[in-house]
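Hey team,

Filing this mostly as a record. A colleague (T.K.) asked me to run one chain through the structure pipeline before their review meeting, and I want the input and output archived in the tracker in case anyone asks later how it was produced. No errors, nothing strange. Just documentation.

Input sequence:
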Amino acid sequence: MDVKDPRLRYLPVQSADEALSYLKRAQVDPQGIPSVLPKMVHVNLLLEGIESRMAEIIRQEMVFVGADAVATPSTAGQGPDGADVILTGTLRQIRSFAERIAAQPFGMERLAERIGGIIGNVFCPSPHLRTSRREIRLGERTLIMGILNVTPDSFSDGGRFTSPERAVEEGIRMAEQGADIIDIGGESTRPGSESVSVDEELERVIPVVRGLAGKIDVPLSIDTMKGAVAREALREGAEIVNDVSSMGFDETMAETVAEAGAALVLMHMRGMPKTMQTGDLTYPSLWGEVIGFLQERIQKAEAAGVDTGKIAVDPGLGFGKTAQDNLRLIRELEELKVLGRPILIGPSRKAFVGHITGAGVGERMEGTAAVVTAAILNGSQIVRVHDVKAMKKVSMMADALARA
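Output structure:
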């Protein structure tokens, strides 16, 4: 009697949710799921600049739990006593490894805590974002942050909405088109842009914030690096501060946000807008710098009294980065999950889209749509865009793909 060959499939499991989905569709005995689920999820961790004495303990303990650790010469200038170590194993093995090293010397207990935190951040449900007025639910679908520039010199839409009346009308239109947040900016942050005075920025944005606050029930965000501007906008009805300098431009920003109970978006940027795309744009470790910078900024905000649950992070596409850097950040966006905070990304009409497609600023909608889709598939929960109506549909399709 001939035996029919079984069908053979590859299961591209990248998360615990995907593993669980495969197990349920295969109608596996529910009692067996808890034991097999951690074995199906693979975890890869990179430790940068590890001392040789720690690296040897790590290698031994990883072998003990049945996983692997490979050390390479450090690329971060750590010298002969530093190395980069890659840990690779199942979720269960990495957890067992963390438990074992917690009792080891040389600061291994802190490392174990950090590994536990990263695993929790990566594999836990999407965090929500609280503002001074509401809780913004994340994870059910991607949220659209509409860009409302009230500046004469923004790279894309400068001069279109310099009249407060027209800007308010545009904000209302964005809300009707499906924007979940309106981000109002009164100072251009395009490469090479000059800073404007506090008074001029206030004159541009406050009438718009005031006008929209009474007309739409959509959270308003103020896109500013200045504490004084943020303070006044928050008084007038804004509830989120989107600071591209991550409190680096104005030392009063953290205190301002904390006092108002507002939400805060922290973004990675090397330098300032005027100089960020000049000079050396190379990174010894691109993600290492982005994550390290944002982690330090989160800690600074927390120290000033900003609640962790009110912080979102942005990798800063186009801010002190090459086109290739931007592509890598989008493709590997899930790395930001280690911070455990909502991920916002702003690819709209950016120069790198034009670099790839050859399109001018006004012709980058298709390229932006591709980036938005990729970003959502790779973990972004909020996308900051100019073309709200079109990108709303793009995000709906990307959400369907991500959550199929």
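Quick notes for T.K.: The chain is about 40% helix and 15% strand. The first strand starts at residue 42 and ends at 51.
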